[in-house]
Amino acid sequence: MIIVQQIVGTGLTDFVIDETTYSTQVGQGFSCNQFKYDGNDWNIVTPGQSGVVDLADYGIAFSGTPVLDDEFSVAQFYMENLWVFNAGKGVNCNKINENFADVQNQSNTNETAINNIASTALLKDGSNLTQSAINTFQQQTPNILSTAGTISLTDNTANFLTLTGNGTISLPAVASDQYSHTITLVVEGGSYSLGLGTVKHLYNPIVIDTTKTYNVMYIYNKIDNSWYYSLTQ
Predict the structure, then answer these.
(1) Which one of 21, 47, 66, 205 has the largest count of C-beta atoms within 10 Å of its C-beta?
(2) pTM of the predicted model over 0.85
(3) 36 near 71, Cβ under 8 Å?
């Protein structure tokens, strides 16, 4: 089957194409060519092709007188290369795809990738979070402090303190939330005194020798919204 249409200009009509001659010139199978008039000659202007042509060599004839820049296109394809489906006849997937049997046995790499993601991705509720991952998240780098005066500690941190003079701990304000808030502080023993801040003391009968290293744990109590401390050595 050959279809021809003028795409620039309107003066050309009654196109006639000898399919055998045209196919001999351009080859059988699907093709689409464009022909343009330069005022004297017809030129083939299909991408990848150019030059003056004799339309008779292509079996092309028409009525009308061409003018500068008139252009028409010719599309060729063969019905035997097409599959035509009629209503009520059904659709044979093997006919749609001649390689259907091969395709049917191919693995779907996208499906495999999606399944891999589904089995390895972290669920939003954290239900598949492994203990090793939790341990990694819980790792923290301690703050090494060597100072005196007002010493501000950050929420949920581990701290090691060497006093260079008398000091006082300042604890952070805590937002109203459902999370735990704990600060640990290891103080190197020495001759300087350390004020533990405006906090309440959890009961602990241990007597602390501040000339030796001791530990302070600050815990935020959600019941009365206050920091508490506990001393160990």
Answers:
(1) 66
(2) no
(3) yes
